[in-house]
Amino acid sequence: MSKKILKEFGLRIKELRQERGLTQEQFATKCGLHKNYIGMIERGERNPSLINIEIIAKGLEISISKLMKF
Prior knowledge:
The protein is mainly alpha-helical.
């Protein structure tokens, strides 16, 4: 499995989070996820489940398809 997609996905989340002026902690709280988990996703260290991808998209107030455009 290529880790490249995990890094690209993580960067996408980080960019969108920062555009909204949210810290990792603020974003994690909004999503109901742990801030360390968000950090690990943003660094490409974790492969989030589809359920968590949906939670992240909702936290960013965008669709999953828009989140996946990277």
